[in-house]
Each structure stands twice: as C-alpha cells, then as structure tokens.
Design goal:
The complex is a heterodimer of chains A (166) and B (158).
Chain A (H helix, E strand, L loop, with lengths): L1 H11 L2 H8 L3 H27 L8 H5 L2 H21 L1 H5 L2 H22 L2 H5 L10 H23 L8
Helix pairs in contact in A: 2-5, 3-5, 3-9, 7-9
Chain B lengths: L1 H8 L1 H8 L6 H27 L4 H4 L6 H21 L1 H4 L3 H28 L7 H23 L6
Helix pairs in contact in B: 2-5, 3-5, 3-8, 7-8
Classes of the chains: A mainly alpha (166), B mainly alpha (158).
Amino acid sequence: MELIESFGRWVEATALSHAITRSPWIWPGGEALHFVGLALLFGVIGALDLRMLGMAKRLALPTLHRLLPWAIFGFGLCLITGVIFLIGEPLQYIVNGVFWLKLLFIGLAGLNVLAFYATGVYRKVERLGPGEDAPGSAKVIATVSLVLWLGVMFWGRMLPFIGIAF
Amino acid sequence: MNMISWLDQTAVATWVRESPSLFAYPGIITLHTVGLALLVGINAVIDFSILGSTPGPSLAPMGKLFPVMWFGLWLNVLSGVALLVADAKTMLPNPVMWIKFVLVALAIVNMRLITHGVFRELSTTSTVPPRGKVLAVTSLVLWGAAIVAGRLTAYIGQ
C-alpha cells in the first residue's frame, strides 16, 4: 500500500496531472463523458441480460447482441475518462477503499464476460430466436452481470461519501 | 426567491442535505445514476436498433423493454426532485439546470413519439419509417445533451 501511495505521489507531481487539475474543462467534460459511457454500457449489457432472463422474449438475441460494440465504446469512454481522473487526483482514489471495491467489481464483471464467451455459454444463445428461452447457465451469468454492474455504479457514486471525501 | 428559501428549510430538504445516513444524499444520488443508466441506456438500445438494418417486425418486440425505460424515468423524477429540493438554493437559480430540464422535457416527448408512434407501425411495415430514423437521432442527441448538462450543473452556473 505504501508503494502504491508513493507511486500516487509521483503521478500527482507530473506535468500531466497538473494539466488535468488546472484545466477548467477537462474534469467536468470527463465527468459528463463518464456518465454517457456508463449509460451506453449498462443499457446494452442490461438489455441483453434482461432478454436472457426472459424479458422481451419475442426479441431474437442477435438483434440485441449486434449492439455490443456500443457497450464496448461506452466502457472505453469510462475507462479513458476514469484514467484521466486517476492521473489528476491519484491519492484521492488509491487511499479510498471504495475505489478498490469499484475496481474489484469491474474485474469480476470482466471475468463474468469471459465466462460468457469462453465457456461456450454464448454459443448456446447466439442463435436464440423469437420466443426461445435461454439456458440456466446464461441466466446465471445475466443475473451476476446485472448485480456486478449495479455494484460498480454504486461504488462509483459512493467514492465521495465513504472513506475520504473530495 | 422566497419559495426557494422555504423549500430549502423543509424537513425533506434538510434531511437529504444534512443527514449523515448513506440513505440520504449518497443513496438518492446513486438511485439517480441507476435511473439514468436504465432510462438513457434503454433509449440508446432502441435508437441504435431503429438506425440499424433490422426489419420492423423483428424490432417490434423491443417494445417490451419500454417499462424498464419508464421505470428509470420515474426513478429519476422522484430522486431528482429530492436532490433539487435539497440543493434548491444553488440548483434552482442555475441556468444550466434549466437547460437540462428543457432537454429532458424534449427527450421525453421524443421518447413518446417513438414508443407510441414509430413502434405502433413497426409490426406492419418491413422497414422502419424515415421519421423513426430522425426521431432515433434526435433522441440520442437530446439524452446525451441532458446527461452533459446534468453533470455540468455541479461545475458551472452556480
């Protein structure tokens, strides 16, 4: 932890970090894009999860799955703007336990995505047509996905309120 | 201004603003984020689908996702009112907040035109009508701008 903190202090002293915090628009603009990204990511992933759980069952799964690039784009927006915040104010994040919980949940959500595509579950649902039910394994992954991404939003929002405030 | 001072002093406003409970301001603003993700996220899913090449009848069942969208809207109207009352002194006089209200109002009208207009025709037409494509674009622009304006209320216009 001390090593990470001293690394944080080093990042904070860089010209890039100064540029981020001194700019009047980088932080507000980054926050705005972070939320646009969050909506795209959660909207597409959430709709896919809900379909696998049985909602809008007459919708063929590929109709939703083809929107996945927008979820990846949304994640990219969140990742890039998130890294900008981290470089701008590294210590406010790395000494806050909530930040690590948020990263843990993102990591677990990533493993869940891996479980979906690498263990053959996706192959069972990729041709799911109108009215067809997803198998139990897909329903489990969909539920875990919803819980984890809601958790990511929860921990993100809690950053200024639990632990140290900023 | 008198109304703002009165709002500011109500029990609800004081509790949301000053209670140390995580269910107060932090919890309500978390609900506002979840509502945003559902409302704008599902809107985006519908808009991108309309703009894609999926034939109308295949898109029509997407209407079953509308309740999720309306749920997100109501979650945000309720949580938004609580947050607004709590910060009435800074937020009500903020022009950026009023820009956000106008954008949200237009986006809701746009959303109704899609759910009650475009989607009614989908089951009978093989292609999405051009009006639907225009409404999908304006929906994306309006919701995107509403998010940006909402986030900026914390930084400008105060």
